[in-house]
């Protein structure tokens, strides 16, 4: 038993040692700074030098980080966004929401239209929706109730052989079927008034 525990602990120790002394330059452990913007493809200028477009990644080796960095994002149709970063703030992970020059204009002449209406072209009619909901819910409940009564009467008929119980079973089954049909009509009406323009 002690031998087994020693082997398990040794395996754990070796595993941890290998993980600890893994390659330090592995792509998963390289620390890089990340700058992104919404919308993307904004030009990134670091210390007045064009560096790339968002999303933009860089390491400390690529940029002189001995002095503070002045970063500016520029995108046509949007206000320039600038900020400063000191060496102590690196690596950086920042996403910037760019603000349009004109709130209603976007790139390529597209415009934003403020629309607070629903998806539907015409407003929904409340009264038919409520009526069909009530019909659907009420007839569904009544269909279940009469089917339950029919099953009870049929059980009594099987137990006693009383023909009256069998006739009541057929009557309650008929009521259940009528209310089931009404439930379906109410459900179709509800779907129609809710979803069809």
How would you describe what is shown here?
By secondary structure, this protein is α+β, with helices and mostly antiparallel strands. It folds into two domains: 28-109, Sandwich (Immunoglobulin-like); 126-195. It contains three helices and seven strands, in the order αβββββββαα. The chain has helices at 2-20, 126-160, 163-195; strands spanning 33-38, 43-46, 49-53, 56-58, 69-74, 81-85, 93-97. The strands form two sheets. A four-stranded antiparallel beta sheet has the order 3-2-5-6, with no helix packed on it. Strands 4-1-7 form a three-stranded mixed beta sheet, with no helix packed on it. A hairpin with a 2-residue loop joins strand 2 and strand 3 (49-53). Helix 2 runs antiparallel to helix 3. The chain is elongated, with a radius of gyration of 36 Å. It starts with a helix and ends with a helix. The model is unreliable at 22-28 (pLDDT under 50).
Fill in the keyword field for this structure:
197 residues, alpha+beta, Immunoglobulin-like, 2 domains, three-stranded mixed beta sheet
CATH topology of the largest domain: Immunoglobulin-like
- Structural class call reads alpha+beta
Task: Provide a count of the helices.
Answer: 3
| CATH domain class of the largest domain | Mainly Beta
Number of strands: 7
Based on CA atoms alone, the radius of gyration comes out at 36 Å
What share of residues are in beta strands?
A: 15-25%
Order of helices and strands: HEEEEEEEHH
Low-pLDDT segments, ≥5 res: 22-28
Binned, the helix content reads: 40-55%
The biggest beta sheet reads: 4 strands, antiparallel
Please report the distance between the alpha carbons of the first and last residues. Answer: 75 Å
Shape: elongated
**Average pLDDT reading:** 79
**Order of strands across the main sheet:** 3-2-5-6
């Amino acid at each position: 038993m002690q031998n087994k525990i020693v082997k398990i602990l040794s395996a754990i120790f070796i595993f941890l040692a290998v993980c600890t002394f893994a390659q330090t330059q592995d792509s998963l452990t390289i620390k890089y700074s990340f700058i992104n913007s919404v919308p993307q493809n904004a030009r990134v200028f670091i210390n007045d030098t064009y560096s790339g477009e968002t999303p933009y990644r860089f390491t400390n080796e690529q940029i002189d980080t001995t002095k503070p960095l002045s970063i500016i994002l520029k995108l046509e149709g949007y206000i320039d966004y600038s900020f400063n970063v000191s060496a102590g703030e690196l690596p950086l992970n920042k996403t910037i929401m760019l603000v349009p020059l004109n709130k209603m204009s976007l790139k390529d002449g597209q415009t934003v239209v403020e629309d607070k209406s629903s998806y539907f072209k015409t407003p929904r009619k409340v009264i038919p929706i409520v009526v069909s909901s009530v019909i659907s819910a009420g007839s569904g409940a009544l269909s279940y109730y009469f089917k339950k009564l029919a099953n009870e009467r049929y059980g009594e008929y099987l137990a006693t052989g009383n023909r009256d119980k069998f006739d009541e079973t057929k009557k309650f089954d008929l009521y259940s079927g009528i209310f089931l049909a009404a439930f379906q009509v109410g459900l179709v009406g509800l779907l129609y008034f809710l979803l069809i323009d």
